[in-house]
Every structure is written in structure tokens, then in C-alpha cells.
Write a structure and sequence with these properties.
Elements lengths: L5 H8 L26 H4 L4 H6 L4 E6 L1 H6 L1 H10 L2 E4 L5 H4 L10 H12 L3 E9 L5 H4 L4 H18 L6 E6 L16 H6 L2 H13 L4 E6 L7 H19 L6 E4 L2 E3 L8 H13 L3 E10 L7 H20 L4 E6 L8 H4 L27 H12 L7
Parallel strand pairs: 1-2, 1-9, 2-3, 3-4, 4-5, 5-6, 6-8, 7-8, 8-9
The chain binds (3S,4R)-3-hydroxy-2-oxopiperidin-4-yl beta-D-xylopyranoside.
Amino acid sequence: MSAPTHRERARARDAAGLARRRLLAGGLAAGIAATLPNASHAAAGEPLRRLAAKKGLVYGTTISATQIESDPAFVALVLQQAGLVVPENDMKWQFMNRGAPGDDNFGPADRIVAFAGANGLVLRGHNLLWYHRTPHWFFELPSRDAKERAIIAHIRALAGRYRGKIHSWDVVNEPIEPKDGRPDGLRKAVFLEALGPEYLDLAYRTARAADPQARLVVNEYDIELDAPEQDARRAALIALLQRMRAAGTPVDAVGIQGHLRAVGGPPLSVPKLRRFLAEIAAMGLEIEITELDVTDELAPAAIEARDRLVADAYRRFLDAVLDQPAVKLIVTWGLSDRYSWIVRKQTHESRWRRDGLPSRPLPFDAALRPKPAAAAIAEAFAWAPPRRPG
Ligand code: XIL
């Protein structure tokens, strides 16, 4: 049995019936009764960024240079709702690179950085190294030393270019993979195969030198799930952080991606997730929720039922993580169903619906209208215990 969440405790206190919650059918960032303490603002459509800020939290979303240039209505929604942006793809090495070492196109990333600066938005960097989005030529470099030099040059160029402007960098994305069978649980990424586990130390040290103000994050997925493989993933991540700490390698935060499923797959384990978060916090590390979304791949077709299941997944996850004071930042991997990796089928991930109906994974629909998911997020922020300022 796990201890009750902050919201459960608050609910129990209100059990006398004074603050009875009534979800309004369908509604605005609204499915919230005005009688809820703190939540009346959400009912009135108060932006997510403001509800978050009231608790000392930062809320944000992905964006792309193309969206900034071509979709003013979407950009207006981002500016209304988000206090932070992160490039969905425009800072990924493979996407920036033109096919040769050092030949990178910083244009789209520059436009996002300028957009964040002009609008006073917090900016995340995603990412410096990711096995999955590394230029092809890197794999063919002839020696260990050539690979080491290329890693250092890339991190210096990218993190150095935006020095002082990035709140937090995902330095290495997805370093863990228990299925790869190593005793330390590290992924057999090309970087690891070339340099050994110390590639992580090299990456974080190089990032710290390139941008001393940025928080340096280890970003990982499926951390919240209840399955033996994910038990191993959590244990491997904690062991990695302990090893990096002992080696004096700079690391400031853990990023929990949070790509959730409304239906299917291993369930969320609230007790395990909370224990894991407490362990990270006890190490003095911050925690960021970096890529939250909810795939509705296996949820029923009927939109009302589907949206409810998606909203419930957001609510359960956020109630669990927001109870941990080390969680200070929440990013959804998109804001509107108009732009979601789940909808666009761009990847080989099997996260889209087989019946061909458009997915509805994000807080706002494709027409930029708030869905029950927006209300669930608003409500979770309204119930979150306040963070200490700073
Ligand atoms: C995804 C993007 O959303 C897609 O547009 C792209 O085609 C592939 O990458 N984990 C991550 C993100 O860390 O970078 C991924 O983003 C989603 C999974």
C-alpha cells in the first residue's frame, strides 16, 4: 500500500461535502467544478502556465521552427498556455547535420531560441546525444579517437552556441536499455560501443564546460511502468547516477519522458514511481517531466470515452509525480493534436491507431480547443502542493 497522494489527503479533508467535485461534461479547461479549492481559475480557462506558476512549477510544450513560421493560431495558443518551449526535432544532431562532420544547419534551432527569447519563455535543449538520431557518418568514423573528437566537437558547438540561454539540456537521451543485456543496464549505443560507459562522463563534462548555467539532464522513457524490464530500467538509472556522482561527473536532473498509454501496455505503478522519484530527490537531483503525452492507440473510437481515458491517464500520472517536490517542470510533447508524433506517423513506433482515426493524445484538439486532458492537467496543477520559490 502506498501513502495517499496530496490530492487524496485534501479530498479526505473535504469529505464533509463542502467541496464536492462535479465534472462538467466535455467542457473547457473546465471539466472542473468551481467549488474546488484553487481550481476555479482552471474552470475559467486560466492558462496552464499560470496555474503551474502559482505552484512554483514551469509548464511547457514542444515547438518547431516551421510551426513558428507558418501557424500563427497555434503559436498564439503556445504563448497563451506555455511558459517553456523545447524544439521537438530542430536541435537533433541528425536533423541539423547536412551529411558531413561539422556541417550543421543551426537556422531552425536559432529561430526557436530567438522566439523563446523574444517571448520570455524558458527554453529546454533536446538533445546533445541520442543513439537514435546520430548522423550516419558518425557510425563510419575510423577510430575510437575520431568518435571521441566528434562527440566533443558536436557538444561544444551546440551547447556553446546557446550558452546562457538554455534552462536544461538533455545531454544523453535514453542511455538505458535493459534488453541489451549488459549487467549495468546501459544501452549498447554507438557511443558506448566506441568509448565504453565513460562516454556519458565525457558528454556531461563537455556540456558543463560549454554551458555552465544549464542544468544537465539524463532523459529516459518508460520509467513509470510496472514491469520487470522497467524495474531493471529504474535500478540501472539509479546505479548510473550514483556512478556518475562518484566520478565527479556533473549531472543535475533526471528527465522522465512520460509517453503514457490510455489503454494497454504495462500499467503505471504509482508506488514504484513515487519510490523512484524519492530516491532521485534524496540524491539532491531535480526531476523534470520532459515529454508527457498519452497515446490513445487502443482506446475506443468514441471520442468522449477516448478523451476521458486519456485525461484519466494524465491525471493519475500527474497526481503521482507532482506530489514529489523535486518535480519542478512539466513538458507535454506537443500542445495540440494538430502536431503530435503519434498522429503524424513519422516514426516506426507503433503508437498510432489501426482504425485510421486521428489520435487525440494532447491537451488541445486539432482545432486548438481544450479537451478533458487540458482540464485534467489544470486540475492536477491546482491540486499540486506548492514548491518553494527559487
Ligand atoms: C520524436 C519526434 O516527436 C518525432 O517528430 C521524430 O520523428 C522522432 O522523435 N523520445 C524522444 C523524442 O526523446 O525526441 C522523440 O521525438 C519521441 C520519443
